[in-house]
Design goal:
The chain has seven helices and eleven strands. The radius of gyration is 22 Å and the shape is globular. β4 and β5 form a beta hairpin. By secondary structure, the chain is α+β, with helices and mostly antiparallel strands.
Length: 349
């Protein structure tokens, strides 16, 4: 008793939105996700006034990204799962006197935060299990435990936040981890938690038409960006916003794939609504988290920087220029859960 595996991190909903945006293809969004999440291409008049059925079948971190995905839970201490819900600031809304996607006025913003709410009803879980009819598997697990540990690698995430008064800045963060795979960065106005802009209309012609302003990630007048990792520039030159999208395809190892892609399908949305720069620090592999090829920053005084500068002049396609802003850095790493005899567990980050 008393043992606890903590995989929670600040901003789970934003991390989930970031990864869903760049890792989900439009074909999946238009089929599976549209049914599971009850998504609509356009917002009907009473879209938010009635209960919406919803199935969440993709989980971050240990619940959804551990390998192997099947584990013998009898080897573990009692398992308890806690879910923490976000506040009303993440809700999408629109002003009834205006059309969806139009900017809402100050009073409507205040009412959204003070009166907006949601509730869950009919909550249940579906757990897939597997049963072996012979004792071969049990004997193999017992033999492995006698020799040492069962090791279960999984994706883990660390988030860092920093505010600034301009995009001419250098956001510093540090992390000690055995395997840093990918780094993402998003930037939003500093008051995005307190002042909802309602539903943001996307420029694309397929896929979901709107997103809540809480999950609007903007280039904000940015002209160039670059990561600095222990005095090594990644990439070794400053890139403009379009080149940053190219780095995203390279980071996902999608640039030569024919069955690849993401939800972003217009340059305007990339600049104004879904701007998610990314760099990869591991080798592309089909083995997932079982192949640990990322940066090992343990034992080092590691320093990471996300450096940005404003454009002069600002690209006319960038509708919003960010002054006071908040940058969120997401570091995707591989952690390992070790299970020993007598249900002893430890985590290696």
């Amino acid at each position: 008793g008393g043992q606890q595996l903590t995989t929670g991190f600040q901003g789970y909903n934003t991390v989930s939105c970031v990864l869903d945006t760049i890792k989900t293809t439009l074909s999946k969004e238009m089929t599976y996700q549209r049914v599971f999440k009850n998504q609509e291409i356009s917002v009907a008049e009473n879209f938010y006034s009635k209960p919406r059925p919803y199935i969440l079948n993709q989980w971050l971190s240990f619940l959804g990204e551990a390998e192997p995905s099947y584990i013998d839970t009898s080897c573990c201490p009692p398992i308890q799962i806690r879910l923490y819900l976000a506040g009303p600031e993440v809700l999408g809304c629109y002003q009834t006197s205006l059309t969806p996607g139009a900017a809402i006025d100050t009073k409507a913003q205040e009412e959204l935060v003070s009166k907006g709410n949601f509730k869950l009803e009919g909550l249940y879980f579906t757990v897939e299990t597997i049963t072996f009819s012979s004792g071969v598997y049990d004997a193999a697990v017992e033999s492995k435990l006698r020799d040492g540990f069962l090791e279960i690698p999984y994706s883990n995430y660390f988030t860092f936040f920093e505010g600034a008064a301009t995009l001419d800045k250098s956001t510093r963060f540090s992390l000690s981890s055995q395997c840093i795979n990918n780094i993402y960065a998003v930037q939003r106005p500093s008051d995005y938690r307190e002042k909802s802009k309602g539903l943001i209309k996307l420029e694309n012609t397929c896929g979901t038409a709107y997103l809540p302003s809480y999950f609007q990630f903007s280039a904000g007048g940015l002209g160039a960006l670059q990561f600095n990792i222990n005095n090594l520039f990644v990439p070794n030159y400053r890139v403009d916003p379009l080149a940053a999208f190219n780095l995203l395809t390279i980071g996902k190892a999608d640039n030569y794939g024919t069955l690849s892609g993401c939800k972003i399908n217009s340059y305007e949305d990339w600049l104004n609504n879904q701007f998610i720069p990314m760099v990869r620090l591991n080798l592309p592999s089909e083995m997932g988290v079982r192949s640990m090829t990322g940066l090992d920053s343990r034992g080092l005084n590691s320093s990471f920087y996300y450096q940005t500068s404003t454009a002069s002049p600002v690209d006319e396609l960038q509708k919003q220029v960010l002054t006071t802003n908040e940058t969120m850095i997401i570091c995707e790493t591989t952690a390992v859960l070790r299970i020993g005899q007598n249900r002893v567990i430890e985590t290696v980050f």
